[in-house]
Amino acid sequence: MPNILIVGASRGLGASLAQQYAQQSDANVFATSRSPDQKTADKPNITYVPAIDIASESCGPTLVSQIPSDKHLDIVIITAGYFGTESFDEPNWQDELKMYSTSSIGPVFVVHHLVKAGLLKGGCKIILVSSESGSITLRHRSEGGGNYGHHASKAALNMVGKLLSLDLEEKKIAVAIVHPGFMRTEMTKGVGFDKFWDEGGAVTPDEAASSLITWINTFDMTATGQYWAPRGPGDIGTAEAVLGKNLPTPFPIPW
């Protein structure tokens, strides 16, 4: 019975991943939420883990304390995120701190504590949900600047994923960094990106979760430390402008 941990499962992609993995009758899903209230699972093989804020220093120990020590995890997906919009004229210090803490600092400590607690063994897969927005290569004048914390915290997460893959290589724990797709979520709507949903080929969280799960099934140590778009480049607006046409799916994203 595979044990799957999804960090950031209260809504959006994380919620869809939890539900879809739980449809596999042999799967055991641990799904975290920032809320301190214990959520009632609608499926017998989902265990909700409350009060997990990845931007908090106590996140790792709190998480480890709520997972039985005999439940070695086969897949860990860290999808918790925060997006605060900024411009050059109006940067936001507190929002940037929150974006970095959530995207690129918290995951280091979560993985550290899971490994040290003996919950991750050889053959485990760690999936860090990033974004194509973290690719320096794909930034293009057509999209302009701004949103410094969002782009830079995802670029930092990409580096975190690469470094974790090197640290965990001897343990045979594979680490991937992924752009799951441009999604129709509360987060993208909250920053005004819903106006780009149709033109940008945005998909539902359920669609993104399905393609990500399919990709994870084939991911292994041969691709550890790599940065991928399982759904391909179709929703990456700058991909053709920077790299040309006829790009593959899945798409290896340039750093």
General form? globular
String of helices and strands: EHEEHEHEHEHHEHE
Which stretches are poorly predicted, pLDDT < 50 over at least 5 residues? none
List the quaternary state of the chains: single chain
Number of helical elements:
7
Relative strand content: 15-25%
Summarize the SSE layout with pairings.
Blueprint: E1 3-7, H1 12-22, E2 28-32, E3 46-49, H2 59-65, E4 73-78, H3 93-116, E5 120-129, H4 148-167, E6 174-178, H5 186-190, H6 205-218, E7 226-229, H7 239-243, E8 251-252
Parallel strand pairs: 1-2, 1-4, 2-3, 4-5, 5-6, 6-7
Antiparallel strand pairs: 7-8
Helix pairs in contact: 1-6, 2-3, 3-4
Which terms would index this structure?
7 helices; single chain; alpha/beta; 255 residues; 8 strands
What is this entry, summarized?
The mean pLDDT is 95. The protein has helices at residues 12-22, 59-65, 93-116, 148-167, 186-190, 205-218, 239-243; strands at residues 3-7, 28-32, 46-49, 73-78, 120-129, 174-178, 226-229, 251-252. It has an eight-stranded mixed β-sheet with strand order 3-2-1-4-5-6-7-8, sandwiched between helices.
Walk me through the structure.
This protein has 255 residues and is of the alpha/beta class. The chain has seven helices and eight strands; from the N terminus they run βαββαβαβαβααβαβ. An eight-stranded mixed beta sheet has the order 3-2-1-4-5-6-7-8, with helices on both faces. β1, α1 and β2 (28-32) form a beta-alpha-beta unit. α1 (12-22) packs across α6, α2 (59-65) packs across α3 and α3 runs parallel beside α4.
